[in-house]
Write a structure and sequence with these properties.
single chain, alpha+beta, four-stranded mixed beta sheet, globular
């Protein structure tokens, strides 16, 4: 993604995080339906991403098209997206897709890391099943087959999928947006994997930790980050002593090596 698009998407995700956390799967379905409309009309994409138009004009246009048909949260998402700048027309649609998947992932995340792993496993199992059969691949990419037929086949290939996985698989087989269904599923799993990092604490220490200390550390980190984390402990003698914890983009570093490096920088300046 170009810088403008990356910045816009990041800003919208941060701005809407509380609303997305409360959204249900119907919001995701509505966002996917909006995406279908955007993908079907180049003129609409141009109008909603035209930087020469006032952002409020673009918001008004989006509301006139979708506002009466969707939930308030969906409208909020669209308002935020069309008021931003995008590097390319298609980037708006891509952003809608990303946020639709975020809503699905947040639903799964209500069961914690286990919910995310369950969703990821269902998608990966579907992808492996498709990859193992050329006949299935042809059926899912057959231009003459109806979306309903492809959706039915997708359900047969993933009988144990929950509601969240079912929605994403249905999307991949009926509207892959120029990709093969398995490729779109892979893109979805990449988003899930990125979200999982919020639930995994990468703990780097110089030597193996005592089990009782690990338990206390885990409880402390759960309180600090506000959720139950899975500890992934890595031994690295180079840290000398202390501990380094990374959860997503956030890092807490109290290692001796880091303190020594900081001291050396101060002495050199």
């Amino acid at each position: 993604m170009a810088a403008v698009t990356t910045e816009s998407l990041a800003a919208v995700q941060q701005e809407l995080a509380p609303s997305l956390a409360q959204a249900d799967l119907e919001v995701a379905r509505e966002l996917f339906a909006v995406l279908d409309v955007l993908d079907s009309s180049a003129g609409l994409r141009r109008s909603l991403t035209d930087p020469s138009r006032d952002p409020q004009d673009r918001v008004a246009m989006a509301r006139s098209l979708f506002g009466a048909k969707v939930k308030a949260t969906t409208t909020e998402v669209l308002d935020a997206l069309v008021s931003r700048r995008w590097s390319k027309e298609r980037d708006l649609g891509d952003a809608v897709e990303v946020l639709a998947v975020v809503v699905v992932v947040v639903q799964a995340e209500r069961e914690g890391l286990a919910g995310l792993e369950k969703l990821e496993t269902a998608l990966l199992d579907f992808r492996r099943t498709v990859a193992s059969s050329h006949q299935v691949q042809r059926a899912l990419t057959d231009a003459q087959a109806t979306g309903e037929a492809k959706q039915k086949l997708g359900a047969q290939l993933s009988p144990g999928a929950g509601a969240e996985a079912r929605l994403l698989i249905d999307r991949a087989v009926t509207a892959p947006r120029g990709l093969r269904p398995s490729q779109l599923v892979e893109r979805f799993t990449e988003q899930i994997a990125a979200r999982q990092q919020r639930w995994i604490a990468l703990v780097t220490v110089a030597k193996e930790l005592d089990p009782s200390y690990m338990q206390r550390l885990g409880a402390s980190l759960d309180r600090y980050f506000g959720r139950e984390l899975k500890l992934d402990v890595v031994l690295d003698p180079a840290v000398v002593g202390g501990i380094r914890v990374q959860v997503g983009d956030e890092v807490v570093d109290s290692t001796v090596a880091t303190k020594l490096n900081d001291l050396n920088r101060r002495l050199a300046s």
